[in-house]
Amino acid sequence: MEEIRIAELPAFHYLNFYGFGSSPELQVIGKVQEWLKQNQSKIGTSRYFGFNNPDPAPGSDNYGYEIWVEIPTEVKEVVSDVKFFAGGLYAVSHCSGLLADADKFIPEAWKTLTTWLESSPYRLGHHQWLEEQLGEGKKNFIDLLAEGRISLDLYMPITK
Asked: pTM (2 decimals)?
């Protein structure tokens, strides 16, 4: 777990993709990948944010996962169904590792952020919790997943 930093995430336009089931992240990543094959040239380099929606429930293996693909303001008119996120203040931490271990290190990273909040001068905000899927070097997050790796910045909403 790396150091926690405070960041103001600016407002942005996005498309959302959704998956539901026992492995919704893989479902939705497939949808994003398919969409990017057709539209990457329109939007250029983008940021990718995801989150559980809804969270896993006790007694069920099914839950939802949503990914937002940032759409640059100057091209939002050429892409349909664009939505708007107002941004906000966040405590941010990085985690990465093997995809096979993600069910261990991602919850541990979130736990570290929530523990940090208890002794910080901030309170929990009401805007969306986010996980930014990151690439490394010239590889995007989909390339990393294909190699069995994942790299995330975790965004916990905060307020003063």
From this structure: 0.91
Q: What are phi and psi of 139, to 5 degrees?
A: -95, 130
**How confident is the model over 112-147, as pLDDT tens digits?**
999 999 999 999 999 999 999 998 888 888 888 889
Other C-beta atoms closer than 10 Å to the C-beta of 115 total: 10
Q: How far apart are CA 90 and CA 105, in angstroms?
A: 20
- Res. 1 pLDDT band, cuts 50 70 90: very low
Residue 144: how many CB atoms within 10 A of its CB?
Answer: 19
Task: Give strand pairing partners of 67.
Answer: 17, 50
Q: What is the CATH number of domain 5-159?
A: 3.20.80.10
